[in-house]
Amino acid sequence: MEKLSILVTGGAGYIGAIMVPELLASGHNVTVLDNFMYRQNSLSHVCAAENFSLINGDARQEDQLRPLVSKADVIIPLAALVGAPICEKDPIGARSLNFDAQKMLLEMLSSDQMVLAPITNSGYGVGEKDVLCTENTPLRPVSLYGRHKVEIEEVILSRENSISFRLATVFGMSPRMRLDLLVNDFVYRAKTDRTVVLFESHFKRNYIHVRDVTNVFMHGLRQFGKLKGEAYNVGLSDANLSKRELCEVIRRHIPGFIFLEAEIGQDPDKRDYIVSNDKIESTGFRAKHSLDDGIQELIKGYQMISNSLYTNN
Predict the structure, then answer these.
(1) CA–CA separation, 240 and 254 (whole Å)
(2) Among 134, 135, 190, 216, which is most exposed with the fewest C-beta within 10 angstroms?
(3) Own/partner pairs, 301-309, CB within 8 angstroms, 24+ separation
(4) DSSP label at residue 26
(5) 120-144: per-residue pLDDT in tens?
(6) Arch. (CATH architecture) of 5-171+207-236+273-288
């Protein structure tokens, strides 16, 4: 792969903290723009790399963004308020960062600059029972976060030199850890409390390891000419699971884990769908990290951290 200049906005976050070191190890010049809103030092271990640049700034500020964009061959826009709860808590911030700032960035680009964007498969909202959502399934997001992601994907794919990765619910350890993601949350509760109460436990979704998110972006860089102009679901094809089924998998690793179903109450996250990943797999990509691998990794990692800092809620 040729050496590229890559701009990663939000590159010190949960996904970027895994992706940026891999991009650097592949020989690319990487610039990260991040406002460090979670006071993280997740990229401290790559500061010695000569091909790494870091700007403490905000992706919503045009005067900071424009000179960085002008030098980049590739843009990976990770900067976002991620997840339904934080977007509902701060809808103005969510709109400004998840849509307005990304639209501004896209309008700065020349036609030959490449974009690889993380979108969410939560845009499918509520699917039909036992029917796999493909990239042609109508998008019906049920959260503000999902709506913004669907809106910005349309803008991204209106330019030919872009790829949209519709990511499943991400899990696994990262230097900028998040405990509010479903697998990470349930494993933490199983490890520390030995119990969890499930609301609407039949709701299903798909999952993907955070390192496989990096792997699919690296695949996208290598195969950009073949993949560009399209959206791709990215998840584990053997992990379309309900919340109850997820808990059953976790209990295989943490015996004694008890999960109770609430008779009243609702899950504020109404997503309920299963996803086909055939399209990305037909291009040669295969996720390498199973759900079981991730659970074992999380069990080890949770010996180091507590719940006080590692959440987006």
Answers:
(1) 21
(2) 134
(3) 301/173, 301/177, 302/187, 302/188, 302/191, 302/192, 305/177, 307/179, 307/188, 307/192, 309/38
(4) T
(5) 998 998 888 889 999 999 999 989 9
(6) 3-Layer(aba) Sandwich (3.40)
